[in-house]
Amino acid sequence: MKPGSTAFGETGAIEESQKRTLERLREAEQRWQFALEGSGDGVWDWNPATGETYFSPRFKELLGYGKDELDASVEAWNSRMHPEDGEKFSLHLDRHLEGVTPGYEVEHRLLCRDGTYRWFETRGLVLERDAEGRPSRVIGTARDVTARREAEERLRLSHDRLQAANLELARAARMKDEFLASMSHELRTPLGAVLGMATLLKEQVHGPLPPESLRQVEVIRTSGEHLLGLLNDVLDVARIDAGRLEARLAPCFLSEVGEACLRRIGRAAAEKGLEVALVVDPPGLVVETDGPLLSKLLGGLLSNAVKFTPSGGRIGLELTRDEAAGVARIVVRDTGIGISPENLGKLFETFTQLDGRTERLYGGTGLGLALVRRLARLLGGTISVQSELDRGTRFLLTLPCRPGGSEAEAEAGPLPVPGAPSTPGSFDPRPAAGADLSGRLPEGLRSALGSAIRQADLEQVDELTRKLVEEDPETARFVLRLARDFEYERLLALLGTPGGFGPGQDPSKAED
Fold it and tell me: Which of the 8 DSSP states describes residue 34?
């Protein structure tokens, strides 16, 4: 073939084209390497068949080396791999070389020139394979991520310390709650004895006392009742938080619970000239709830309403049903001093007093509303508040309520509702039956009931009375009904237990 022939010319054109293609590839690689190193990444280029490896100047700089100081071999890489990271690195690399993954990315440590290890994020990609499919060229980048890894480690350690501290706080709180809950009766017993003795002195059972002594006895009694109420609140909060107070659900007439609670605040409201109103719609509204706990919750809200409403004000209790939402709505409203917007958020916090002055106008410990919220949750309900300074406050309690709850449902319940007056069909013995009530109870149970009633411990009365349900349900109903209606004086007389409350000295009449 002669020079200048067509074939020779075509061959020269192909070689020229290949030369230009290789030149463009080199320029593209240079631009790629420049872009990567400009972002701070080091570049490497590895031939798996020969082990020859190119490390860019930036890569060497990241390890603390000059551009001519690191061998161009894969061994220069492997020898600097942290012993704990080699297996992980090889696993990711091998899976990619075998074609299992489209690329590989792994974080590991490399030994630097100064003897320290630094963290790198390495990414790689097989660029070329030979005729048998074996990788012949792998390229990739390495980015120093030491600062991020150290920040993550500090964050992890901080999280671990915080978690440990939270666990310790939770353990301490649990131990406190368990202690208070287990000490419930032990703490009440001596206080009950003090109240019982004060009552005996007040009644002058052992002889007359001078007026000044009677006044001092009354101070002891009223102070003891106040302390008992505070103790009961503390123990109830602790028992709820410790999970040791459970709601016993049964059909319950809301109107009867409301009436009983209003009777409890009746004297205090009358002394301040407060107008008290009760609205029930429908009249036979029934909910499945724990009557004693609901009574305690409403008692706390109504007592607060009396405390914070000036003389001549109004207090209202509204009991309604929201058929669409499937809830009973219980509203306690007053025309009292109200609450500022900035204080509403901390209203239900434990031991929080919104009136924080040294000489407060209103007493209290800040436990009442904290207990109210816990009781609402325990009963499966919610509680919210709306208030305006100098205009009054409105608390809304919602409780689950089956549609169409009626009186028939409540009559099917195992025990009467708290505070309910006698209703047709319930056990309401005449004087003859009442006279032998003491003989219808075992001596141990009669004595325990008398002690619980003198301490106004409705929970203990409830517990003791339930033991009678199977053997003598009528007596159980009668005793529990009177206790929940706070007729302690009558109960003690029927039980024939000494140390009863004298006229007008029923502890249910004490101011909240």
Answer: H
My answer on whether 13 and 74 are in the same domain is no
State whether 441 and 390 are in the same domain.
no
Shared-domain flag, residues 414 and 279: yes
Amino acid, res. 379: L
- The structural domain count of the chain equals 5
The CATH number linked to 339 is 3.30.565.10
Residue-wise pLDDT for 206-263, tens only, equals 788 898 998 998 888 888 877 877 777 777 777 787 777 888 888 888 988 898 889 8
Is pLDDT above 50 for 511? Answer: no
Angstrom distance (rounded) from CA 336 to CA 389: 8
- Tell whether 372 and 323 lie within a shared domain: yes
Give the type of residue at 319.
Answer: L
Domain-located, residue 344:
yes
pLDDT tens, position by position, 319-337: 999 988 889 999 999 999 9
The closest of 159, 63, 158, 165 to 115, measured between CA atoms, is 63
CA dist 67 and 136 (Å) reads: 25
Token pair belonging to 204: 């002058």
- Structural domain harbouring 191: 170-228
Residue 239 included in any domain: no
pLDDT at 497 over 80: no
Kindly state whether residue 278 falls inside one of the protein's structural domains.
yes
Find out whether 111 and 80 touch, Cβ atoms under 8 Å.
yes
> What SS3 state is found at 104?
strand
Helix, strand, or coil here: 495? Answer: helix
Residue 338 has pLDDT above 70, yes or no: yes
55 and 121 in a single domain? The answer is: yes
DSSP three-state, residue 274: coil
| Span 302-320, pLDDT tens digits | 999 999 999 999 999 999 9
The model's pTM:
0.49
Backbone dihedral angles phi then psi of residue 349, each to the nearest 5 degrees: -75, 145
The tokens for 278 are 């009760």
Residues 6+ apart with CB under 8 A from 195: 221, 224, 225, 228, 454, 455, 507
Domain boundary among 382, 401, 419: 419
Query: Residues 6 or more apart from 63 whose CB is under 8 A from it?
Result: 70, 80, 110, 111, 112, 113, 118
Strands (E), 52-167: 53-55, 104-111, 117-129, 135-144
Sort residue 499 into left (φ over 0), alpha (ψ -120 to 50) or beta.
left
